[in-house]
Structure formats: structure tokens, C-alpha cells
Amino acid sequence: GRVVHLADYRPTDFVLERVDLTFELDPEDTKIESRLIFHRREGADPQAPLVLDGDELTLSGLLFDQIEMDADRYTATASSLTIRDLPAAEPFEVTVTTIINPTANTKLMGLFRSNGIYCTQCEAEGFRRITYFPDRPDVLAVYTVNIIADKEANPLLLSNGNFLGGAGYGDGKHFAAWFDPHPKPSYLFALVAGDLGLVEDTFTTVSGREVALKIYVEHGKEPRAAYAMDALKRSMKWDEEVFGREYDLDIFMVVAVSDFNMGAMENKGLNIFNDKYVLADPETATDQDYAYIEAIIAHEYFHNWTGNRITCRDWFQLCLKEGLTVFRDHEFSADQRSRAVKRIAEVRHLRSEQFPEDSGPLAHPVRPTKYREINNFYTTTVYEKGSEVTRMIATLLGRDGFKKGMDLYFDRHDGDAATVEDFVKCFEDANSVDLAQFSLWYNQAGTPQVTVSSAYDEKASTFTLSLEQVVAATPGQPTKEPMVIPLSFSLLSDDGTVLTPSSVEGGKVAGDVLQLVERSQTFVFQGIASRPVLSLNRGFSAPITLHYPQSKDDLAHIARHDSDLFSRWQAVTDLALPALTAAARNAASGAAVESDDALADVVVAIAADESLEPAFRAQVLALSSEADIARELGSNNDPDAIHAGRQTVLASIAAHGEQTFKTLFDTLNAAGSAYSPDAAGAGRRALRNSALLYLTFVEKSPARAAEAFAKADNMTDLSQALSILAHQFPDAEETRAALASFETRFADNALVMDKWFQIQATIPGDMALDRVNALLANPHFKGENPNRVRSLIGSFAFANPTGFNRKDGAAYDLLASQVLDIDGRNPQLAARLLTAMRSWRLLEPMRADKARNALMRIESAETLSVDVRDIIERMLQ
Ligand code: B3K
Ligand code: ZN
């Protein structure tokens, strides 16, 4: 539990040349023999000992150059192995033997078993749970892996790289050998053994090499891997075409397992996936599931270059691979689907997850400077804000400038363990620019607040824009420097055409992007013949909060005319937010909520506009979430009032647009046409299901949703109908019947049962806690399966604002008890669940008080993992 500081980085004293691992697999007694060849780094202290990392290990053998090592030359503890009196220059070999119990490994880090399958998770520091090793990302070596196991139980023996060969032994065992020619850090090591079904295909790379593609899933589930395979081939092609990156081994494997702490892992040549992000067919997966599978298959594949070929020098540089790779998967999905709708979804996610993190007790820079537990830094700030920072580089340098920088990065750093500075320098060198001030985005936490005012001078034909930026204090960073904020803009005339200024003074403007670089700055646009309507931060060019008081008319003008669909969506959102916050305030004070016809007009008109893609219209109809409204209100939040106010606004839009919603529901009825998971089909289903939701507000009856549930021929429609029933009519007989039929039909499908738990855990209101308690006792609930825990406890805490924030604080107590219980077996999962309460200080005082009590109960527990201790202490600071 020591704090690690970026400033303390130094290279290892010893260079690791090669690694030879032999695994003798056994469910409870797996023996690992690890032969490591080292030499002392030139210039290193000739007396320095070799210190290897361990975690819950016991040493059962140690050889030096194949001879048993003298006991006085080494010290072994559970967490380290220190070897002294080592040669000053010549290479030497250390052979370490450990014995571990994969079945007892409930942390799901290192080597563990999932449904009888042996598998590994080594990022960030799981390899040290297998054997003593220099377990840090800047130690790169070439690995040979031998796996020995019972043949009948484990016909499949997999590791990284290319298959060397295998053979049977007389005693029912067999072995396989793998060699990975690409030097890699230990966090990219993987091993899988067991009995799995296989889906095979091939991909021919741009230079004509044939790559074998293999996806391993549980027997019987092979047909559900077809979409993942398709997504993989599209990813490989896209990376060649867009980033010029070709795959570099003869084989690429994906293994799907059911017990996994995260989404997936990019191990070299052997990706291991949470099966949630591999398995899909129309009957069991929603359109959202398909979109996630496409994005995550792509993300892990793209890591082969951004993460594996070029890795991180230390874990502070995590965004170097994660932010960049998220940017790459976002661009991939944008190219495969609707770019605008994808961007809207990204921004929604950023605002609802990253903005709260960035303004709360867990705020940290995209590149942190210290950590106690690195697993707690796989955050939305490192991933999603990291991606936004990469996107801003692309916006500032333009498409060609960005490409030049990326090409230089791949060229210059292939095979390296690199830093954020290395990355930024490539863009500077390739474009002859200075990105020093821009780099503050990596180092300063907090979401910049940009306040804007504007004035038009008709006589002078000038439009004046004044901008001011402020970044609030965050933990450890009381004061901030001004950042480089690239703002894409458009000046719209009365008829919606774009006005082009003859010149601009006051700062740098390149094309349609202006750069705010000072604390406050005024831009004057010359030659503007009529009063323009300014559309600012188009496409969400900068991850900021914009305060620009625009009239309803101006927002409606943008919503009608901007050529950027994202900005049109943003304008509608800006129109709707004041209505939603007013409704929440009124609900809190008991005042009647007035309906806003102007807003309803705009929303319904967009819903009915056939010239717009259905997915976009569905995004508009979704309105801001309760969490968005809470953020807008700031502090002293009453989740019940926010919920009640939002329901009223939905009802008034529903009443206003009843005919439109009926037409949409009837005409978008896809029954009869075969289901296809493509973006267009998904968009139609999304729009139809939004129409269904609005209609239930008008009809105040579960009948239509119950009928939709009965007629649904795919999981998207089925689960949407079930959600509407459960969330709008929790006590109806139709809801009880639908939940029961869903349970009976899908009892054997864990991923679908996760949806059953999730839908019920997110039913709003005071009964939610009792429901969650009953579900915890349901025989389908499996506390050792992370997906199931997230679908019940995670959904309740993260996505049920009224139910979780009940006034008596009992739900906070439930979460506290669950966190403590889960912490005993799976600290990473426990720490992640706990972050659901990171915004507790923004609640109204009574609730905040109850939340603090629950958090203090966790803090005072006798034994806590480092993971949970780190989070709880930062949350209470
Ligand atoms: N790199 C992994 C995440 C590892 C998380 C370790 N706690 C998956 C990914 O980002 O692609
Ligand atoms: Zn990643």
C-alpha cells in the first residue's frame, strides 16, 4: 500500500534477456518453473541486488545457473524475492519455481479458473501472482511457454505468439509449446487451457500474409461468435487502411470467459474477453450489445500496435495506450456507423461518467503523478478524457498533421516502452509546432469551464466574442494554468447559411477552429454583414463545460440549421435542460410544473422529421438523464424531485406528440423483416422503442408495452418492452407476468439473466431496496460472478438515482455491506462498486450525512484491501 510517484521512476538495474516458462497445470497445485536470463545494465551499481516482485507467493525452488542457490544469497517473502552477489557484467540464469492454487484465486488476477477453464489476467500487476518477476511494463523480453496438463480435461493449451509444437505423454497428459517473437512486458502474458469450442476464419493482410483467426467459446455457443469474428476482420482491415498498421503474427486468438473483472484484455496474440463482449445473436443480444462487441473487439485488436508494439514505460503513462486506443476505436465505430450519432453517445457518456469523476474527490490528471493502487486508475479520465485529448491533437493539427505525427510515433517508438512526452514530441516534430501549453491537458485535472459572451455591431459589421476559462481546484492541484482549448465554430446567418469573416483579430483561428489560450480572450470577426447565430464547440471539439447564454430562438435556429448534427442535438439539449431543471425545482417545492410547449414542439418536430436518421431522432427523444439534470443543478440534490420533474416533462412531450408517436410506433414496426444488427436497423428500433415509452405516458396503461413484449422477435425489443413495463408499471400484473416469462425462457443464459437483474435493480422508487434484497437471495444471483454482481449491485448503485438515494440511507448501508463482503474475495470489483458514491457530497444535507456514515463504516473496517482503502480514503478526504 505504499504511494508510487512518477518522479521516482528509474530504469531497472538488470536487463531481462529472455523468459522460459513451464506450467504444469493442476486445479489446486499448479507448478510454474521460470527460467530468466539477465545481465546487469551498463552503468548500474555493481553491488545492487536483483529484486523480483511477488504477490501472495511462496518460493519452492531457486537455481542459479542451474545449480541450487545458497540460502544466504537470497531472501524470499510473499511479495518479493531478493537475490544478492550477482555478476557485474556477464549474463546469468535464475530459475524460480512456485506452486499456486488457481481454483482458490477469487481475485481473478494472475492464473485463475473460470467455469473450469484456466485463464490469466496480468495487467496491471497480475503476473507477480504467478511467479517472482520484474513485473513492470518497461521490462520487455521474448517468451517461450510450455504448458503441461491433463489431456482429456484440457485439450486446448494456448499462450502468446506462434504455436511451436506439442505431443502426448503416456500418463494422460500432453504438452504444447508457444513462442512469441515480439518482446513484451509481463502484463501482456496470457495462458488459457481447457475444453472450448472454436470458430475459425482467416484474414489476408495488405502485404498478402494469411493470418489464422480463432475465437474460442464454450461448446454450443459457437454460432454466437459470428458477429465478433466479423467485427475482428473489419477492425484488421480498418487499421491497415486508416493507420497503416498490419498484424504481425501468424495467428490471432480470442477466448471468451464468463468470470472476468473487466471487459477484455489485449494480451499479445491471445486476447481474453468477458464473454459479454463476444457472444451475440438476435434472440439474446441487444443492439447496444452488438455495438459494444464491435467496439471492444476493435479496441483490443488496435492495442496490438498502440499498447503492445509500443507499450508504456510505467503505469503513469497508461493513457498513452488507453486514451489513444479509445480514440482509435471511436473513430472505427464512427466509420462503421453514423459518425454524428456515435459522437452524441460518446459525449453523453463522457458527461455522465467522466465529468463527475473530474469534479469530485477522485479527480486526477489524464496522466496521474502518484498512485497507491494502479488498478484504481483504469478510469474514465484515463480512457475517455485521454481519448478526447488525442482528438484535440487531431483537431488542432488537422487530418494530415495528425497522420504525420502518428506515422512518426509508430516509426520512432516501435519496440519501445514510451512516455506521453515521447508521443507529444512526435506531433511537434512532424508538424514543427510547440505543444507545451497543450500538454497541460495531460497534467491538469478538472473540466475547464468556459464562459462566453458576444455582441454584434451592425454599423461596423463586426461580431465580438469574449471568452474566459476557469479550471476549478482538484485534489492536490489548488491552482491551474490556462489551457489550449480548440473550439470549432460556425456563424449562421438568418437563413442558416454560414457567414465567413473577412478577418479575425484577437487570437489564432485556423479554418473553423479558434484557439482559446489565455485566461480571457476576445476575438473580433470582421465583415459579418448580418447578426450571426454562433454555434460553438461543434462536434464537442473540446471536453469542456460551456456557459453561453443563448436565446431560445438562437438555440432553435442552431437545432434547425447547423450542418453538424452533434450541434443540433446539443442545441435541443440546451433548450430542454432549463425546462428539466425548472421541473425538478418545482417538484421539490411542490409547485405545479408548467408544460413548455415550445420545447415539446421542437422535440416532436425532430421526432417526425423523416429527413433525419432515426438513431439521431431517438437520441433527441431520450432527453437529458436524471444524472445530467443533477449535474446541471449543482449541489443540494434531491433525486426524487429530479425524477418527478423529468417524468412531468416527458408526459407533456408525450401529450403534445401523441399522433407522431403512434405513427412512429406503427410504421417503424420491423416485424416480418429479418433482424439485422446494423446501425440503420438499430436506429429504427431505438426510435420505435422511444415512441413506445412516450405512448405509455399518454395511455397510462401497460397494455401496449405488454403487447410489444409478447410480439418481440429480438432481444432489443424484448428488453426495451420489459424495461418500460418494469419502470413505468412496477406493480402491474403484466409486469409480473413478463418478468416471470423472461426468467423461465432465459434461465440458462447468464448474459440474458444479467439483463433481468439489471432491469429490476433500476426500477425507480422506494421499493427498490427491498427488491434488490430479494434479488440478492434469488438462486440465480451468483456473488462470485463479476457480471452478475455488476448487473444487480452495480446497476442499483450507479443507475437507480431514486432507489439508491432513498432518504433513510438504507441503500448506502447495503452498498457498504456488499463492498465489505466482496472485498474479501475480489478487491478490484469492490473498489469499482464503491466509486458509485463518489459524488456523495453533492446530495442534499440529510442524504449526504447518511452517505458519510456508510462510507465511514467501510473506512473503519478491520481489514480492507489496498484497492478499497485507496478509494475510501480519497472519497472521505
Ligand atoms: N488493458 C485492459 C484493462 C486492464 C485493466 C486492469 N485492471 C483492457 C483494455 O483497456 O483494453
Ligand atoms: Zn484498452
From TrEMBL:
Record-listed E.C. numbers: 3.4.11.2
EC class of the enzyme, as a word: hydrolase
Domain Peptidase M1 alanyl aminopeptidase C-terminal: 553-877
UniProt entry keywords in alphabetical sequence: Aminopeptidase, Hydrolase, Metal-binding, Metalloprotease, Protease, Zinc
CDD domains associated with the record: M1_APN
Peptidase M1 membrane alanine aminopeptidase domain residues: 227-438
Swiss-Prot/TrEMBL cofactor(s): Zn(2+)
Aminopeptidase N-like N-terminal domain segment(s): 20-188
InterPro entries: Aminopeptidase_N-like_N, Aminopeptidase_N-like_N_sf, PepN_Ig-like_sf, Peptidase_M1, Peptidase_M1_dom, Peptidase_M1_pepN, Peptidase_M1_pepN_C, Peptidase_M1_pepN_C_sf
Catalytic activity: Release of an N-terminal amino acid, Xaa-|-Yaa- from a peptide, amide or arylamide. Xaa is preferably Ala, but may be most amino acids including Pro (slow action). When a terminal hydrophobic residue is followed by a prolyl residue, the two may be released as an intact Xaa-Pro dipeptide
Pfam families cross-referenced by the UniProt entry: DUF3458, DUF3458_C, Peptidase_M1, Peptidase_M1_N
Residue ranges of every copy of the Peptidase M1 alanyl aminopeptidase Ig-like fold domain listed in the record: 446-548
Domain of life: Bacteria
GO molecular function list: alanyl aminopeptidase activity
NCBIfam families associated with the record: pepN_proteo
Family: Belongs to the peptidase M1 family.
Listed name of the protein: Aminopeptidase N
Source organism of this protein record: Rhizobium halophytocola
Lineage: Bacteria, Pseudomonadati, Pseudomonadota, Alphaproteobacteria, Hyphomicrobiales
